[in-house]
Every structure is written in structure tokens, then in C-alpha cells.
UniProtKB/TrEMBL annotation:
It is a multi-pass membrane protein. The lineage of its organism: Bacteria, Pseudomonadati, Pseudomonadota, Alphaproteobacteria, Sphingomonadales. It is found in: Membrane. It comes from the Bacteria. This is Sodium-dependent transporter. The chain crosses the membrane at residues 12-33, 45-69, 90-121, 164-182, 194-213, 240-261, 273-299, 319-342, 363-385, 413-430, 451-470. Keywords: Membrane, Transmembrane, Transmembrane helix, Transport. It comes from Aurantiacibacter arachoides. GO terms for cellular component: membrane. Its main location: membrane.
Length: 474
């Protein structure tokens, strides 16, 4: 039953290093940008409650299943699944879903880096503004003084109209991601996580306290936690489920890959719980950080994807110390984004190291450059190629630009497919003794986990997949 160690010889130096890195992977633009956007658009409370239900009943079991595959396989996602299949005496063809995951992670990091580039641009805007405030001897003034709401919103259009600006931001962000991944696990990814995650939490807590002091936290909490069940329909449930998978980094083999670097003797149950709890707490706190500020200025919580980039900067204009807090806010989002993008690039990188025998440098450079190129196509989709609809023949993608097509294709199809395969493979095919031994769960917890994984996850995830493909069914 024993399975050999990770062939790269690299790995996390401790259990807490793994937890920190996995939290870094999970906490990203999904928590700080997508979650508040979706909660805002879908009426708050009902969405949030369904989301939490999805995390507990589906997310946690799937998270443990991915960590299990990585821990048991001790190599890249494809190799790990193959090893578990071998021990379990089932077809090696299951390893294909590891490849699918690696492809999905590669595609996601290409547009993830473009969006993170927007964040980087706003870091620049707010850094410049704060520098001016300092120079004027008024460091605690609001942000972007004297600009109208249209002018502030216009900063986003200026960015989108400029391929060069978008490209430079994307280049810097992808370059940083590549640099960290090329340095390996203990010397690169772990180091980044141990420096950046404490900074992330310190910023998150500070800005949330700020929001509570200057904003309307009561209204925000009521908005986020009072369920209006009339808003709840199949589409909202579908969104909540998809968001839970994305936020926990499931279905793209990222957690399998990170799990493969865990050293012997780590208790996987509490580890899974810690990661799931932290990710969900950050999403909720992000809501409690953003909405009090939005409500304090009487703005619309349902602004959609521009909530963070247009609504919030305008709110910072009216807030005390808005220039400083705005800067800190975008630094916070940037930190969250980079600890996630490195985990995405690590998936295809580990695959090429494990399956093709490439050096880490070569693998990281190849996939980093490839994802950069796809990202360039995404950002050109906002200006030069704004008419291009890559999957325009398919009704669900008929109206979507290049970035949204890749986002939609990965999120609605590849990610649920990966999660479906994971639940079927671990829930039905993986050797029971191996799963029991590797996870180290108590009997009742093991039974509960297997039940949720084998029955609830496949059904619910198949539903996301079906509705993603055929929205008319809803
Ligand atoms: N979980 C990340 C987020 O919420 O932003 C996105 C992500 C990262 C998805 C890594 C998948 C992954 F492997």
C-alpha cells in the first residue's frame, strides 16, 4: 500500500506551511471580487446561505478528496490519480481528469492574470493619489478628490481602451507568478505564502474594522445575512454551487497538486476543515468589509463586476482616509490574487515535471508564457478584438467576449466536470483501505465523508454541469 515520495524531492516544510499555502490558493479574486459581486447581484442573504450550505456539504468533501489523491499519489495530478488507480486496481484512464484539470488551471491563470492586472493598475492609481495626499500634507483625506463619479468610473474605461496598459499590467503580474513558481515549493511558493498571508490577514482585519467604524455595518450584515427566499431560484443555487467550487479551488487539480507535497503524518481531516473555514470566513468578511463602505455612501450593492473597480473607488472618495484605505484595499486584493495564481500555474508545471521529465524552470516558463499569450488575446477582446466571440455559435457563449468565454467555459464546464470525476473516482473507485488510512478520519466521519462524496456531490455537481450547458432547463 505504501506509495513512494514526491519525485521532485521538494515539499512543504510543515503542516502549517501547507495550510497557509492552500489557504493562499483558495483565497483570491474569487473571495474579494466574485463573491461580493454575486452576493450583491443575487440579493445577499439567500445566496449567502445557499453558498455556505454548498461549502459544507459539497466543498469540504471534495476538498478532502483532492488532498487525499495528492497525499496518496505524491506526484503531479495525472501521476497521483494513476497511482491511486493502480493501488485500487481500476482503469488508469481516470488519470485523464488530472490532465483536464491541468488544462483548466492553465486556461484560468491566463485570464486570472489579466483581472489581477486591473487590480495592479488600481494599486498604481491609489498609490499615486496617496503620494499626492502626503505631498499636500493631508494623508488622511479621501481618495481621488475632486473627481466626479463619471470620472472615477472612466478610469476603468481608460484602462480597458488601452491594450498597452492592460498588457503591461498583465505582463508584470504573470512575470511575478512565474518567478515564484520557478523557484519551487519550499523556496518559492511556501516562502511567498508565509510572507504574504499574514500581511493579507492583517490588512483584511484592519480594513474591516475601518469599514465598521466609518460605514454602515448593520445594514451590510442585514443585507448579507437576512435571507429573502423569494430571490432563491435554481439559477441562484447554481451560481452558489459554482462559486463554492471556484473559491475552494476545486475541480482543476490544484489541491491535488498542493496535496502531493504534504509530508507523512499530516492529519487531513482538520487540515481540510481549516482551509474550508478560512476561505469561507474570508469571503464573508470581504462582504462585511465592502458593503458597509458601499452603503455608507448610498451606492448600489448590485453593481456587478464593476463593484470593486468603480463603486468602491467612488465610495473611498467620500470616506475619511479613503486615499490610504483605498490603496491598502487594492494591495490586499493583489496579494490574494498572487497566492492563487501561483497555485494555478503550479498545476501544469508539476504535470510537465512529473509526466514529461522537464525541469521546473522550463515547465514554469513554457506554461507561464503560454498563459500570458492567451491572456493577451483576452485583453485585446476589450478593445482591438471587441467584436470577437470565440464560441459565438454556442448559445450560452453567443454574447461573450474572449475573457468571459474562457472564464465561462472553464467555470461552467471544465471545473464541474473535474469535480464530478473527483467525487466519482474517490467516492466509488478508490481503494477503501487506502482512503481510510490516508485520510485518518474517525469511523463516523469517514462514513459521512464517503456518503457525501459518493452521492450528494455527483448529483449536485452534475446538476451544475447540466444547467451550465443548458440554462434553458432552469
Ligand atoms: N480559489 C481562487 C479564488 O477564489 O480566487 C481561484 C482558483 C485558484 C481556482 C486556484 C482554482 C485554483 F486551482
Amino acid at each position: 500500500m505504501a506509495i513512494s515520495g514526491n519525485p521532485t524531492g521538494d515539499g512543504w516544510s510543515s503542516r502549517s506551511a501547507f495550510i497557509l499555502a492552500a489557504i493562499g490558493a483558495a483565497v483570491g479574486l474569487g473571495n474579494l471580487w466574485r463573491f461580493p459581486t454575486l452576493a450583491g447581484e443575487n440579493g445577499g442573504g439567500a445566496f449567502v446561505i445557499v453558498y455556505i450550505g454548498c461549502v459544507v456539504l459539497l466543498g469540504l468533501p471534495l476538498l478532502l478528496a483532492e488532498i487525499f489523491i495528492g497525499r496518496a499519489g505524491q506526484t503531479d495530478a495525472v501521476g497521483s490519480i494513476r497511482k491511486v488507480a493502480q493501488v485500487s486496481r481500476v482503469s488508469h484512464a481516470w488519470a485523464l481528469f488530472g490532465g483536464l484539470g491541468a488544462l483548466a488551471a492553465f486556461l484560468i491563470v491566463s485570464f486570472y492574470s489579466v483581472v489581477a492586472g486591473w487590480v495592479l493598475y488600481y494599486v498604481g492609481v491609489f498609490a499615486g493619489d496617496f503620494a499626492q495626499a502626503l505631498a499636500a500634507g493631508d494623508p488622511f483625506r479621501g481618495a481621488l478628490q475632486g473627481e466626479t463619479q463619471e470620472q472615477i468610473a472612466g478610469r476603468m474605461s481608460d484602462l480597458f481602451d488601452s491594450p498597452w496598459l492592460l498588457l503591461s499590467m498583465h505582463l508584470v503580474f504573470m512575470g511575478a507568478t512565474l518567478f515564484i513558481v520557478a523557484r519551487g515549493i519550499s523556496g518559492g511558493i511556501e516562502k511567498a505564502a508565509t510572507w504574504l498571508m499574514p500581511a493579507f490577514f492583517a490588512l483584511l482585519i484592519s480594513i474591516t474594522i475601518y469599514g465598521a467604524v466609518v460605514g454602515d455595518v448593520g445594514e451590510a450584515a442585514a443585507f448579507l445575512f437576512t435571507p429573502d427566499w423569494s430571490k432563491l431560484d435554481a439559477r441562484v443555487m447554481n451560481e452558489a454551487l459554482g462559486q463554492a467550487l471556484f473559491s475552494l479551488s476545486l475541480g482543476v487539480a490544484g489541491i491535488i497538486t498542493y496535496g502531493s507535497y504534504i509530508r507523512e503524518g499530516t492529519r487531513l481531516g482538520p487540515t481540510t476543515f481549516a482551509i474550508g473555514l478560512a476561505d469561507t470566513a474570508v469571503a464573508l468578511v470581504a462582504g462585511l468589509m465592502i458593503f458597509p463602505i458601499v452603503f455608507a455612501v448610498g451606492l448600489d450593492p448590485a453593481a456587478g463586476p464593476t463593484l470593486v473597480f468603480q463603486t468602491l473607488p467612488f465610495a473611498f472618495e467620500a470616506m475619511p482616509a479613503g486615499a490610504l484605505v483605498g490603496l491598502l484595499f487594492f494591495v490586499l486584493v493583489l496579494v490574494a490574487a498572487i497566492t492563487s495564481s501561483i497555485s494555478l500555474l503550479e498545476v501544469p508545471t508539476a504535470w510537465a515535471i512529473g509526466e514529461l521529465g522537464w525541469s521546473r524552470r522550463r515547465a514554469a516558463l513554457t506554461f507561464g508564457a503560454g498563459a500570458f499569450a492567451i491572456g493577451v488575446a483576452c485583453l485585446l477582446g476589450y478593445n482591438v478584438w471587441s467584436d470577437v466571440r470565440p464560441l459565438g455559435f454556442w448559445s450560452i457563449f453567443a454574447e461573450t467576449d474572449i475573457l468571459d468565454t474562457i472564464d465561462g467555459f472553464t467555470g461552467k464546464i471544465m471545473l464541474p466536470l473535474g469535480a464530478l470525476c473527483t467525487s466519482l473516482f474517490v467516492g466509488w473507485r478508490a481503494d477503501r483501505r487506502l482512503t481510510e488510512q490516508t485520510t485518518g478520519l474517525s469511523r463516523p466521519m469517514f462514513m459521512l465523508w464517503r456518503f457525501l462524496l459518493a452521492w450528494l456531490c455527483p448529483l449536485a455537481v452534475a446538476a451544475i454541469l447540466l444547467f451550465g450547458l443548458f440554462p434553458k432547463l432552469l
